[in-house]
Structures are given as structure tokens and as C-alpha cells.
Specification:
- The chain is of the alpha/beta class and about 325 residues long.
- It has two domains: about 200 residues, Rossmann fold (3-Layer(aba) Sandwich); about 110 residues, Alpha-Beta Complex (UDP-galactose 4-epimerase, domain 1), CATH 3.90.25.10.
- It has a seven-stranded parallel β-sheet, sandwiched between helices. The chain has a three-stranded mixed β-sheet with strand order 12-9-14. The chain has a two-stranded parallel ribbon with strand order 7-10.
- Helix 3 links the parallel strand 4 and strand 5.
- Helix 5 crosses helix 7 and helix 7 crosses helix 9.
- The relative contact order is 0.14.
- The structure holds nicotinamide-adenine-dinucleotide (NAD).
- Nicotinamide-adenine-dinucleotide binds next to helix 1, strand 2 and helix 3.
Length: about 325
């Protein structure tokens, strides 16, 4: 019998890739997802799907017990970093309490490894290139939540011996990404806007830069770490090294979609201006990783997929807690307009 792996958030973008890779590698996959952000259609047919929340401790116990879970990939989260300032309670409940609920179950059921997707949001600003030896200084509730979970994993290891590996991906894009999320994933938003014949919206002058990472480059190390005991207790940045400004990205997305679009500039929002990470540590631990997929190639693959997707209206978040300083372009979603 093959090893059983629980993938929380497996109906989401990265989780859909993780689930497929694990199946390809011969694992049995159980997906737990509340479908708040992901889609049932993203889940591979060969996986067992359980609809529910990571906040449901009793359900987690049942899953771990009934399926004999050996490894956990914990990806479930509400990952709209920019919005996290305005949904603080929800962010900490879903992303911290939800994660700790999974960690508790992993401890109780003695899993062999818990793989957690943190984020480079833990580094905060002015720490580039971001590398794992830096002290995290997260500046928004999303990053603070991720770092809290990282610290909780270390505490769970210290007392209970829980083995874990933390990955900090950044700006991941590719097939299965939610194209209808108005708050995050600039590439998905640009593609949605192009497919709707709308102008592309850019916060500020568009000179903020990110190293956009094709999903395979972030996911492959996450799968390979299971076979490498020395990756337990470690944290790794994963993704691409090459930064592009949002203006450059807009031009590249238009090329990939074979379309021209007008650009509309919105007020700058509270965000880190330049974010790029060092990936030498993961290369040191996992030899022979392929060169990252170029932006042009990755966008080409995603564009071919995006053109075949059924487009829906943007799905607004319904529980905004603080409206002050909410970017005006997001305010329309609060009033339901
Ligand atoms: N996409 C990126 O660029 C990126 C970068 C860094 C880190 N991450 C992290 O990677 C993980 C996956 O991100 P993604 O981009 O695939 O996001 P996603 O929104 O596509 O996937 C998250 C999934 O979690 C599910 N979910 C949310 N709350 C849940 C809950 N309480 N119980 C059960 N399921 C729940 C959603 O329905 C969704 O399917 C997240 O933890 C995110 O913080 C993503």
C-alpha cells in the first residue's frame, strides 16, 4: 500500500499542482478544502476529496485516523496579502488558528513530515535579496500569520518531535490559478482583464518589482523534500531569481495573450516595493533542480490554459473588517457594486 498524504488547500492553485505531483510520485492523496477559494474542478480525479475546513479539529482527527495519514502538505490559507490589513481577525483565525489546528492533529497522529507553505512575506521590506538566514520582519497580517505558524512548527518540533519543512514561495503563477480573484495574483488579474476586453489596472507607477515564479519551479522542491531527511526542520525560499517590474509584466502578459490593452493607473497601495529572494539554499539541499522556467515560457503556458477557462465575475470577499485605507478599486466590492 502506498503512503497517504493529506493536502490541505488541494482545490487551490498550488495545491492542485502538489496533489498531481504526489499522485505521479505514487502517493495516495487526500484533499481537504473548504472551497472558499479553490475549485472542485482543480482536484485530480484520483485524489479523495473531503470538503471541510482546517479549523474543524474533529474532522481532521477523523481524516488522520481513517486514512492513516503519513505526510501532510498544509497549503490551505486565505492568501490575499494586500487585503489582510482589512480582514485581520479572519486572517489570523483562518491562517494561524487553522494551521495550528492542522499541526495539533499532525502531532496527535504522529505524521512523518508536515510541509508548510509560508511566504517571502515573512521577510518584510528592505531585506533584499531575501535569504533564509535573515531575521523575518513581516509587515502585514498575512506575513505575520505565516511567521507565527513557522515559529509554532519549531515549538511543536521541540516538544513533540514533529518533523516539518517550510517553503517560502513568492509570486507564483501558472495553470489552475484563480482568474476571478480581484485581490491577488497580478498575472491572473491581467489575464482576466484582457479576456474581458478591459484595461489593465496597475497600482502606483508600476515600477515595483517581483520575481514571478512559474508554479513547477516552486512545487518540485516541495515534493522532493519528502525523500530527503536532511530537509526536515529547514526553511527554503523557492521560485525564480529574475525580477520584473509590473510595467514589464503587463507588456509580457499582453504578448502572451496576443492582445493589446490600455493601462489604467490606480493609487499606490501599501506594499513592499522590491521583493526578490535568494535560492542558493534549496539548490544546495536538492541537487539537479532544472533552471527556472522563463517568464515568457511560463506566461505562454498559462495563457494557453487561461483562454480555455470559463470566466466568472470577480468573487468579492464579504467580511471586510476595516474600510479605512481600503484601496478605492476594492471598495466597490464592499458595497457589492
Ligand atoms: N500563490 C502564491 O504566489 C503564493 C506565494 C507564497 C505562499 N503561498 C501560499 O501557498 C498556499 C497556496 O496558495 P495558492 O496561491 O494556491 O492559494 P489558493 O487560494 O489558490 O489556494 C488556497 C486553498 O485553500 C483553501 N482554503 C482556504 N481556507 C481554508 C480552510 N479554512 N479550510 C480548508 N481549505 C481552505 C481554499 O479554498 C483554496 O482552495 C497558501 O498557503 C499561500 O499562502 C502562495
Amino acid at each position: 500500500m502506498s503512503d497517504k498524504v493529506l493536502v490541505t488547500g488541494g482545490a487551490g492553485f498550488i495545491g492542485a499542482h502538489v496533489a498531481r505531483r504526489l499522485l505521479d510520485a505514487g502517493y495516495e492523496v487526500i484533499v481537504l478544502d473548504d472551497l472558499s477559494g479553490g475549485m472542485r474542478a482543480n482536484i485530480p480525479e484520483e485524489a479523495v476529496f473531503i470538503e471541510g475546513s482546517v479549523l474543524d479539529s474533529a474532522l481532521l482527527d477523523e481524516i488522520f485516523h481513517d486514512h492513516g495519514i503519513r505526510y501532510v502538505y498544509h497549503l490551505a490559507a486565505y492568501a490575499a496579502e494586500g487585503l489582510s490589513h482589512f480582514i485581520r481577525v479572519f486572517n489570523y483565525r483562518n491562517n494561524v488558528v487553522g494551521s495550528v489546528t492542522v499541526i495539533n492533529a499532525a502531532v496527535r497522529h504522529k505524521v512523518e513530515r508536515l510541509v508548510f507553505t509560508s511566504s517571502i512575506a515573512v521577510y518584510g521590506s528592505n531585506q533584499v535579496p531575501m535569504h533564509e538566514a535573515l531575521d523575518p520582519r513581516p509587515e502585514d497580517p498575512y506575513g505575520i500569520a505565516k511567521f507565527a505558524v513557522e515559529m509554532d512548527l519549531a515549538a511543536a518540533h521541540k516538544l513533540f518531535g514533529l518533523r516539518y519543512t517550510i517553503f517560502r514561495p513568492h509570486n507564483v503563477y501558472g495553470e489552475y490559478q484563480n482568474l476571478n480573484d480581484p485581490y491577488r495574483n497580478v498575472i491572473g488579474i491581467f489575464m482576466w482583464q484582457i479576456l474581458q476586453g478591459k484595461p489593465l489596472t496597475i497600482f502606483g507607477d508600476g515600477e515595483q518589482s517581483r520575481a514571478f515564479s512559474y508554479v513547477d519551479d516552486a512545487v518540485q522542491p516541495m515534493i522532493e523534500c519528502l525523500g530527503l531527511p536532511e530537509t526536515a526542520g529547514e526553511v527554503f525560499n523557492v521560485g525564480s531569481d529574475i525580477s520584473f517590474t509590473v510595467n514589464q509584466l503587463a507588456a509580457a502578459v499582453m504578448r502572451s495573450m496576443g492582445a493589446e490593452a490600455r493601462i489604467v493607473r490606480l493609487d499606490a497601495r501599501e506594499e513592499v516595493v522590491h521583493a526578490f529572494a535568494d535560492h542558493s539554499k534549496i539548490q544546495q539541499y536538492i541537487g539537479g533542480l532544472p533552471d527556472p522556467v522563463t517568464l515568457e515560457d511560463g506566461l505562454g503556458r498559462m495563457a494557453a490554459w487561461a483562454k480555455k477557462q470559463e470566466l466568472r465575475p470577480p468573487k468579492p470577499f464579504t467580511g471586510i473588517e476595516i474600510e479605512d485605507k481600503l484601496p478605492p478599486s476594492w471598495r466597490q466590492f464592499v458595497s457589492g457594486g
